[in-house]
Amino acid sequence: MYQSLEAPSSLLKPRTGSSLKHRTATPRARLVSFPRYQSTSRIGFPMLLSTFGTVSSTHAISETTECAVTERPERPVRIVALVGEGTVSPLNCASWQEVMLHTADRLKWVDDGYEMLVFTDDLCWSSGETAADVQRELNSADILVIVAVTNQESVKWIQTNSGRIPNIICFDSSQVLTNKLGGMNIHRKTDGMLFGKLIGTSELRKESEALEVVKTVSDAWDRHNSDDIRFCLLIIINAYIRPVPILKNLRAKGFSTLNCMVRNCGTEILNCLLDPNCRKALECLNKCSPVDQVCNYRCIASYESQNLEAFSLCVLQKHNCLQLDAKIPEKPYVPPMVKFRGKELCHETAEDLFVGWLGSLNWSWRVVAGQNPAYDQFPCQYQLFYRGKARGTFWYEPVFRVKTLDGRLVWRRRKYRVKRGKVPGTFNFSVLDNGVVSNEFWTIVDVSDDFSWGLFHYSGAARVAGQSYTGAVLVSPDGAYPNEVESRRLVSALEKCGIKEWELFNVDNFSCADPPLGIPEGSKLHSLIDVKDLSWASV
């Protein structure tokens, strides 16, 4: 497994080049250290990616120089994607053309200035104006992405017409094609690694930085999900074209972080070092890629302890030693459902939709599938929504199963406070999870009249963790996928979220015996809707 104590500097500091020529820069010194934190998906599990041995060592702090950049209006970042005609991706058998077209839309959520055009490779060598159009786009491209291209005519055409492009990345394509980063050619090894040994340069530092970028991009691509495919492109943009703001939180703030931790959290640090589970958790996290959220959470689930929670609470939540400030994403905007059973949706009815089957069953909903890969690899997900004893209070408790690193299956449960949004069908969630607060904005996108399924969208941020995220969950009373009759309505609901059905990860809902369910005594359920009266329901 690839190990890294900090996000590679090449991923976080753009190189000076033609794309930066309209900026003014003033050198300044910056101290860089290893402590780093990352949260996963909507559950908000904290990921502290360092060992205290690294934090406490003065040798872990090195001085680098970067530029303070004054932003001016910039031209768009132009990306061209060439995909093999008729090729199929590993994302639930969606075509690569569809996957990359969707990626182009999702790049706009990050920055409207990211423009990606997608062509199939058969257009390159076709007759007429089409090939000329593709060539014109290549002449102004900052990045060329080649996916699943093996046709020899296409390969020759690409070799002839891509010489001016400074950044070329090839995935699942002919070994003859050459990759390029920052104008430097890169060979691929024959062992299957995406990129390999650099050629054509003796500058070891540039070689090292490029290989760091290469490794991060390769690992992300191999996770085969839409979030990481977009992340691959953002890494290249950030490293070789211009800064990507949402990636700035991958690096800690150096000496100020260390000073903050020692000054404010000495007791918590010592307790963590003396606790075998807490120490193992930090060591385990340090072996994970900073963007591999599944790996990160398995470390937390395997070695979770009160001392680890206290450590995170002090270093991150109370004192924000990493000086991070992530925001809840504003895009995509997802409208809530407007009517339920022909009547205008009100706040009380919207809460009843969340409460769902609780009362008739021991849970509100079971998760069928979700879009966020960091969360939806966990089996046996139950949702509990209920009204609290105090007037106006509403709560959400997810219950789910985790397979630990030593092979144990353990149940986990979290508790969110839920408040109504301004518009019926929207809600604000907050949770203190392993010492860190996550705030989320949820939308009820759709719920069928018979409560046979529902779709909930969320966007959130763990502010002091520097992590923002979006996603959606498809739910049903028994964890089974909606029937074919509901297919068109489900696809329409997913489209409102900017999600394709092939992006969803199915939840393993087998072997779910004895979940720790139940709600506090005195809690209240439905206000206007009684699910038990639904005689036509299938459960």
UniProtKB/TrEMBL annotation:
InterPro entries, A to Z: Calycin, VDE, VDE_dom
Domain (VDE lipocalin): residue spans on this chain: 259-509
GO molecular function: violaxanthin de-epoxidase activity
Gene Ontology biological-process entries: xanthophyll cycle
Disordered: annotated span: 1-24
Protein name from the UniProt record: Violaxanthin de-epoxidase-related
Species of provenance: Tripterygium wilfordii (Thunder God vine)
